[in-house]
Amino acid sequence: MPELHLTNTLTRTKERFVPIDPANVRMYVCGPTVYQRIHIGNARPIIIFDILFRLLRQIYGEAAVSYVRNITDIDDKIIDQAKANGEPIEALTARTSEAFLADCVALGCLSPSHQPRATAHIEGMVQLIGLLVAKGHAYEAEGHVLFSVPSMPDYGQLSNRSRDEMVAGARVEVAPYKRDPADFILWKPSKDGQPGWDSPWGRGRPGWHIECSAMAEALLGPLPFDIHGGGLDLIFPHHENEIAQSRGAHDASAMARYWVHNGFVDMRGEKMSKSLGNVLRVDDALAIVPGEAIRFFILGAHYRQPLDCTPEGLREAEETLTRFYKVLELTGLGGPDDDEEGQPAAEFLAALSDDLNTPRAIAELHGLATRVFTAHIQERDPAGARGIALTFKASAKLLGLLNDDPAHWLRGRAGVDGPRIEALIEERRAARAGRDFARADAIRKQLADEGVELEDRKDGTTGWVQKRSAV
RNA sequence: GGCCCGGUGGCAGAGUGGUCAUGCAGAGGACUGCAAAUCCUUGUACGUCGGUUCGAUUCCGGCCCGGGCCUCCA
User: Fold this and answer.
1) What does the pLDDT look like over A228-253, one tens digit per residue?
2) pLDDT given at position A471
3) Cis (ω within 30 of 0) for the bond into A22?
4) Which of A412, A394, A416 shows the shortest CA–CA distance to A403?
5) Which fold has domain A270-411?
6) Fewer beta carbons below 10 Å: N end or C end of chain A?
7) Distance of C1' in B63 from CA in A471, Å
8) Residue A28: is it exposed, middle or buried by C-beta count within 10 angstroms (0-12/13-18/19+)?
9) Which nucleotide does the CA of A376 lie closest to, via C1'?
10) Phi-psi label, residue A402: left if phi above 0, alpha if psi -120 to 50, beta otherwise
């Protein structure tokens, strides 16, 4: 196995990844706050860290990797959304959580080792806050408990900003109960009608950030753990504050060793975000292309780069996957009876291990696909082609791709009327037999416009393939 | 204002101090009734101005343009 390298936000450099304990590699990734369905931008870290999870399992063994991705089901946005919907909070979070998990499955993601819910970890948060108060890193004020940023002189290392810079750039009014403008809320009082839990500071609820500190240590154990991931926009304040809380409570020098952040998905050059309203929801995208195409599209750019989301891009991803499924069908792989497992190609692993360079890994996939076609069709060497295809399949699987049955992907997707296509093929066959090529070509053209490719074989039969979804 | 990214051929998108990304689209060829699929071939690409260097798209600096964080956000 090649050495894994990751870009560490903490040091702003690409570093060799060395786990604290190779027998227990630990990763925490910030999951969604469940008040709405997720969009393509939210899907990016879900997919990227699923790839990293798979790669770590490949390197260290499946049993040696713990991956925690939380669901935050208590937050003011949730309270507001439930109110706007006129439904109980529990109904909203249950429905949205379920939809989130369904989206993850549709995108081909493995289940993380643990998917904790914040509301199941309130006790841990209260304990953590208690420790922070006891150690002088937090104080109570007007029913709130706040983290004292000046109590931690080296606060701001992850986002590379000093407390003074933060305060100078602040664009929000400072709450009067804060001792320092940079202080942030750990616990806040709940009014009647708002969800709340009893605590030493009265009935209240956690502030944003503390849930991740609590869930990470509850499920991953002593600090530091190996990898903490999430979107670029979480660096500040969320991850910076998680670090402050976790380090402060445990006098630890670090919360996690490697901080990995993905770039944004853009819409016409601007960040896709709910506040801008320029979002493409995953469930809406799924109505246009299969989930695997969304996944492949996202892997088409390096995870740290911005990625512009366009319908054309999703289409191209889908058509490329069609080419890949042809490789499997040609070599008899990927079907229900296929239990042959190959090993990922060395070059492919090298690309993936180099800071998850998925575009380079995909380029390797294209190279392997071409070699399969050449061996099978040009060189008439099915056995050789199959051998390469096994490597191809194993490589693609590491990216979480090609999970469908080729026959289903190529001819069984929604919106395709197989019998009608077969009938048109038969009509075309008859036309060709009668040398009515104009009619034969018209049929081919018509189907091509619908995204259906015809392939005339040597033996006189004609096959067909659904290149893209019929929408 | 502070901090941080990025500007690569028609498009998408890697990468590198001096021979190759890759894909889509385009052109030519093999194959074909013609095609399609598949394969082969093909394109004076690296924002701009300087500097370092034998040599820079790649390193350094200025500038222009775009984006992000500093407030909820993946």
Assistant:
1) 999 999 999 999 999 999 999 999 99
2) 56
3) no
4) A394
5) Four Helix Bundle (Hemerythrin (Met), subunit A) (1.20.120)
6) C
7) 48
8) buried
9) B38
10) left
Q: What is the mean pLDDT of chain A?
A: 94
User: What is the rounded distance in angstroms from the CA atom of residue A72 to the CA atom of residue A145?
Assistant: 20
Interatomic CA–C1' length for residue A164 and nucleotide B2, angstroms: 10
- Work out the percent of chain A whose per-residue pLDDT is above 70: 98
Same fold, A5-262 and A270-411: no
Q: Which nucleotide is nearest to A164 (CA to C1')?
A: B2
> Averaged over A327-343, what is the pLDDT?
92
Question: pLDDT digits over A433-465, tens only?
Answer: 998 988 999 999 899 988 899 998 888 889 999
Element (H, E) at A54: helix A40-60
How far, in Å, CA of A410 to CA of A346, rounded? 29
Token representation of residue A160: 């590379």
CA A47 to C1' B68, whole Å = 21
**Fold held by A5-262:** Rossmann fold (3.40.50)
